[in-house]
Design goal:
Structural class of chain A: alpha+beta
Helix content of chain A: 40-55%
Number of helices of chain A: 8
CATH topology of the largest domain in chain A: Jelly Rolls
CATH superfamily of the largest domain in chain A: Jelly Rolls
Oligomer: homodimer
Distance between the termini of chain A: 18 Å
Shape of chain A: elongated
Largest interface: A-B, 27 and 28 residues
Strand order of the largest sheet of chain A: 1-8-3-6
Order of helices and strands of chain A: HHEEEEEEEEHHHEHHEEH
Strand content of chain A: 15-25%
DNA sequence: CGTGGCTTTGAAACATTTCAATCATCGTGG
DNA sequence: CCACGATGATTGAAATGTTTCAAAGCCACG
């Protein structure tokens, strides 16, 4: 989502939306529930995921501050959204958005959200097709680093979520991180804070990202 | 794409589009070229793919008769489109579509294409995350079977394209097909025609599809 | 009937997962 | 304040699944 579009919808969401706080691991909405409300991240992070019959849990997307989520193509939510840490979101009902901004503006919002989802999905696909475990982890860390600012990067995402997103097991993710560290590409302080030491090398590994 | 939407645009495309024939393996448009024309499949099959710096070739999508492709979110084509067999498409320039149907109708077309792409991408993601080789192949064959009619199914897609799409090597795909055959789930006649023998079993393998 | 492209098969190498155990980290209650 | 337990992360070793490399088979086409 570009800076302009973020600003363009700023008033609408700010006018209509009510700030809501969610605690870590709290569910924002569940798979199958009617999708009558739309959300925009203010702070914190949210993940969407889908529970499969066999217990696998493919992760859809991660949402950062400023991003809109909860809009669906159908009437119901196709995924579950959960807070990854304590977070604040602006919540607005579809009807309130229409009342305040009109049908056209809601459609525009839906359009932007859909385009962003499609772009994310394509990037995610590129990551999963024909990339090795360490390339996946490298791409992921590079992505997080690019979305963050500052040298020390806060990793809100736990190993299990990373693994689900990358199509790997938690152990493999862990090993790849260890490996990236021993080759001096990144450096972790604890398991949730890291620093990119060799940007060039990380980009090289992430390659076809 | 639903039946209704197909019909709704039928006139527009039929009025404006010019039928074009492409031979097997011919390029319809290339990655990076300006996306000024839109296409709808009449017969045959088309694949889109992206060539990566390292020579890998992730496949975007396969397009069947009736489906629209070539619309892009940006100004240029993000992928290359190639004919997988001799095929006929209706081609129309964006400007001609606007002249004939108006801006709104083109937007609607773009919306439908984007939604379909997103749904495909999500399904594709589900396939790649946490599915084993034989589950992937089973899902793929099931998908082809569902889109086809009749008992004997024509597989327009070669092994290499399947492998690229499924994130496997051509040898693995071949082995999985052999395996599905020996377990009596499907039966191949040559390498491009098959029949589903045990629908239930195939669905079981495709599972979380 | 041979040639070339695509598919299948085999064996060994390799990457990832699985299972099991150990290790941090962090919040809680003694 | 420290020990404790809980949760999540790391590590190791063996098992598994997939790829790689090499060779042979099949089929369509000239």
């Amino acid at each position: 989502m570009t800076f302009e579009t973020l600003c363009a919808n700023d008033d609408l969401f700010a006018r209509v939306g009510a700030p809501v706080v969610f605690a870590k691991d709290e569910e924002i909405y569940g798979q199958g529930e009617p999708a009558d409300r739309v959300y925009r991240m203010v702070s914190g992070m949210v993940r969407t995921s889908r529970f499969m019959p066999d217990g696998r849990r493919p992760i859809g997307d991660f949402y950062y501050p400023g991003e809109v989520f909860g809009l669906e193509l159908g009437a119901d939510h196709a995924m579950t959204a959960e807070a990854m840490n304590d977070c604040v979101v602006l919540a607005a009902s579809r009807s309130a958005l229409i009342a305040a901004g009109g049908e056209a503006e809601l459609k525009e919002l839906l359009w932007q959200a859909t385009v962003r989802d499609l772009e994310n999905a394509r990037e995610h696909l590129a990551l999963l097709v024909r990339k090795s475990a360490n390339e996946r982890v490298a791409s992921f860390l590079l992505g997080v680093a690019q979305r963050s600012q500052g040298v020390m990067i806060e990793l809100a995402i736990g190993r299990q979520d990373m693994a689900d997103y990358l199509g790997l097991t938690i152990e493999t993710v862990s090993r790849m991180i260890t490996q990236l560290q021993s080759s001096g590409v990144v450096e972790f302080q604890g398991c949730r804070r890291f620093r990119v030491c060799d940007q060039r090398a990380l980009e090289g590994l992430a390659a076809a990202a």
